[in-house]
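DM from R.C. (forwarded with permission)

"hey, sorry to bug you on a friday — could you get me a structure for this? deadline for the figure draft is monday and I only need the backbone to look sensible"
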Amino acid sequence: MINKNDLYDIAFALIRIRNNITEKSNPQILSRMIKVLEEENNTEDNQIRKAISTIDGLDREYWFFAYHNNVYVNHQMLNKADIYALLVKLFQSLICELNKKEFDKAYDLADSFHCLPEIIADNNFTIPKSFWKTFVKDYRSKWDNDFLRDEQRMLKRFQEYS
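My reply, with the result:
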């Protein structure tokens, strides 16, 4: 289980990936973040940073933030399985495009959701309608009109009833 600060670290990592989309370590970084998201019983701080920093051969200067652990006094935990599932699906989709060396599509995909973890953190662990209209709309019109439509509907229903 991750906390609000881990969401900010994920957002920063996604920006770093998007800005250097052809970097060969990107799939490994995403895989490490997926592993953290899939761990249910770990509540320690800096999970994303620690996971990224264990990758051999990583450019320490480019990924500087991963080598410095912060101390937090506010621990708001993300406990919504649907949000975890969405992030994992997005990371897996990006890994797939990177492995196929579809870098234009991978860049646009990363661009469509790089800010999502920060939006989730800033909106009390919810995804506002504006995210779909502002960020996902362009990716849908260029690459896949049905991209995340089911997830959008499911999250909308879930947020209406919570």
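R.C.: lifesaver. The chain has eight helices and no strands.
me: no worries. The chain has a mean pLDDT of 94.
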